[in-house]
Specification:
D-Maltodextrin-Binding Protein, domain 2, 6-stranded mixed beta sheet, 5-stranded mixed beta sheet
Length: 363
């Protein structure tokens, strides 16, 4: 059955309208020729208006892009700061930021530390905070636990024993001096004048005890098993002419001055603090001998700070002529200044640590 003509015409007109508009945006309509239904009049069919495309997407995209850039910059800054090495602190400090560096010592009252501190302020802009310890067992744990930044009180062997015993890795970063370990007596002017079975006090810590026994052996007062080593103890004494007692290193000077012993091995800083005259020394070891390499004193730092530029400068400052002069005045001219480098000290420390392990230290 054929559909009515009017329906066909209408559908045809709709189709014409669609193709004439073509989906284009426009103002006004499309002109159609007259049809039977419209007579001779010209007919316009208005095309539907499509909405204008928004022009605000550009600024939105720009805002999003800027936000992304900002976020990336913040993340990069955080990563850089986290990854910054420990010794970068030296660079920021050298840029003029007020800085305080704490140094653990055992003789803070000595005038040369005042000279040193004033020089650090003048040349490096650093305020030195001296933290005094009366017991040799305290400065290294304080450094390891970040209670101080550096310390300056010990020699290579002392640090080697501490590191091995405590599974630490503190490092020397700058040599200071080698000081002989003397035997003092207020009653007798020489070793030969000591009576048989004279009472002698020596330090009880492992390192200074071994060194003290070697001093007594070189003076002919004791004989040590196998000639003695840097790790000998009082148990290694195989023959003796004197009676030996071990006391805390800080108490050796007091034992001598109280008259409870005839002579005592006394570390230089304790002897200086007790104002013992250098003329009361009746024996000592040789700080210039090859064996004395284990007894070079130095500034120590945590391993992470071993290359800190500021700390290295502070260690080097010890050898300023004004500081060295003050040290010699305080020590009675007995100190031998060392020019050993940080690398040389660290190599000696590594060797001495190996020797300590072989001797059973820390077991």
């Amino acid at each position: 059955m054929t559909p009515p003509a009017t329906h066909f015409a209408t559908d045809l007109n709709v189709a014409k309208q669609h193709f004439a508009c073509g989906g284009r945006r426009g103002q006004g309509g499309v002109r159609h020729p007259p049809t039977e239904e419209s007579g001779r009049h010209v007919q316009y069919v208005r095309c539907p208006h499509l909405p204008q495309r928004s022009t605000r997407r550009g600024p939105l995209i720009a805002i999003v892009a800027v936000a992304i850039v900002v976020v990336i910059a913040v993340v990069v800054a955080i990563i850089v700061n986290i990854a910054k090495p420990a010794d970068a602190a030296g660079a920021s400090r050298s840029a003029g930021t007020p800085t305080t560096v704490s140094i653990g010592v055992s003789d803070a009252s000595q005038p040369y530390w005042q000279v040193y501190s004033a020089l650090a302020k003048k040349k490096l802009g650093v305020t030195v905070k001296l933290v005094n310890f009366s017991d040799y067992s305290q400065p290294n744990p304080a450094l390891a636990q970040k209670q101080t930044d550096l310390n300056s009180f010990q020699h290579v062997e002392f640090l080697a024993v501490y590191n091995v015993t405590n599974h630490q890795d503190l490092q020397p970063i700058g040599a200071t001096v080698t000081v002989p370990l003397p035997l003092y007596s207020l009653r007798y002017s020489s070793v030969s004048a000591l009576p048989a079975n004279a009472k002698i006090a020596i330090p009880n810590d492992q390192v200074n005890q071994a060194r003290g026994l070697l001093v007594l052996q070189s003076a002919g007062l004791v004989t040590l098993r196998d000639g003695g080593t840097a790790f000998s103890t009082i148990n290694d004494v195989v023959s003796k002419k004197v009676e030996i007692s071990t006391v805390d290193a800080a108490q050796t000077a007091g034992a001598l001055q109280s008259g409870s012993v005839d002579a005592a091995i006394i570390n230089n800083n304790f002897a200086t603090a007790a104002k013992l005259p250098t003329g009361d020394r009746i024996a000592k070891d040789d700080p210039s001998s090859s064996a004395a390499r284990n007894y070079v004193n130095f500034f120590a730092a945590r391993k992470a700070d071993a290359k800190n530029p500021l700390y290295l400068k502070l260690a080097a400052l010890y050898h300023d002529p004004s500081v060295e002069k003050a040290v010699q005045e305080a020590d009675g001219g007995v100190a031998v200044f060392s020019d050993a480098t940080a690398a040389q000290l660290q190599a000696q420390l590594k060797k001495t640590e190996a020797d300590a392990r072989a001797a059973g230290v820390g077991k």
